[in-house]
Amino acid sequence: MNGGVGGAYGAGKAGSGTDPISILTKPHVILRLLCWVFSIVVFGCIGSEGWMKDKCLYNNDINACNFGTGIGVIAFLGSLALLVTDIMFNNISSIKVRRRAVIADIAFSAAMAFMWFVTFCYLSDSWRKAPYPKHGYGVNNLRGAIAFSFFSIFVWAGCIFFAFTRYRQGADTAFMTSGFEGDASMPGGAPYTSYPDGPEMNEGYQEPPFSSSQKDMAPGGPGFQQPAY
């Protein structure tokens, strides 16, 4: 998941380089591309054969056709914007901006997963109630829009998972502290050295006062005198 050593929010340091192949092979980018393709399929199917003589084939419910098309267009634009953000993510130097981008990814992906669930339920219910189109006109497209609405729920849920994983990674410690450890040129950066221990530490040592006199006056010593009784 990390784009490089010492990165933040799943990507390397700013200016570490952008390799299109490595970016396009990342799991969350692959899911983003699927979101983009599925959105095209949904609004393309409804727009091409979802109507017959200005009548929506989803049980003649204009709102069903408009809702499915609208969600598809929003998902198309949103996934495209997030895809561009993924490509340019390594060039973002501010950790705060990266954090906001990841949070926006989580929020938008969660909203789209929910809206695709609503779209799937809405279109499925409308199609269930609708009469079979004359000569089977647009049946495959109408069913395809429902199917890819269902698939979109899971690909957007996958985007939530990977975005939340990047958010939990946060800022790498190496990215925050690189260049500041062990730098003797900075104030306080020089390593701590202990006080030198040399022979001068023992110079000037003297015995405690009265130690020699106490030895002389001790019993058996040269200065000891036996008391007279």
Summarize the structure.
This protein is mainly α and 229 residues long. The protein has 7 helices and 2 strands; from the N terminus they run ααββααααα. β1 and β2 form a beta hairpin.
Q: How does this model look, in words?
A:
Residues 191-229 are annotated as: Disordered. The protein is mainly alpha-helical. It has a domain at 30-173. 58% of the residues lie in helices and 2% in strands. It is built from seven helices and two strands, in the order H-H-E-E-H-H-H-H-H. The chain has helices at residues 20-24, 27-49, 62-88, 95-129, 139-169, 173-177, 211-217; strands spanning 51-52, 55-56. It has a two-stranded antiparallel sheet with strand order 1-2. Strand 1 and strand 2 form a beta hairpin. Helix 2 (27-49) runs antiparallel to helix 5 and helix 4 packs antiparallel against helix 5 (139-169). It starts with 19 loop residues before the first helix and ends in a 12-residue tail after the last helix.
Please report the distance between the alpha carbons of the first and last residues.
Answer: 100 Å
Q: What is the number of helical segments per DSSP (H or I, 4+ residues)?
A: 7
Instruction: Write down the Rg.
Output: 39 Å
Q: What sort of overall outline do the alpha carbons produce when their principal axes are compared?
A: elongated
Uncertain regions spanning at least 5 consecutive residues: 1-6, 177-192
Strands of the biggest beta sheet: in what spatial order?
Answer: 1-2
**Counted beta strands:** 2
Give the strand content: under 5%
Structural class by SSE content: mainly alpha
- Give the helix proportion (percent range): 55-70%
Order of helices and strands: HHEEHHHHH
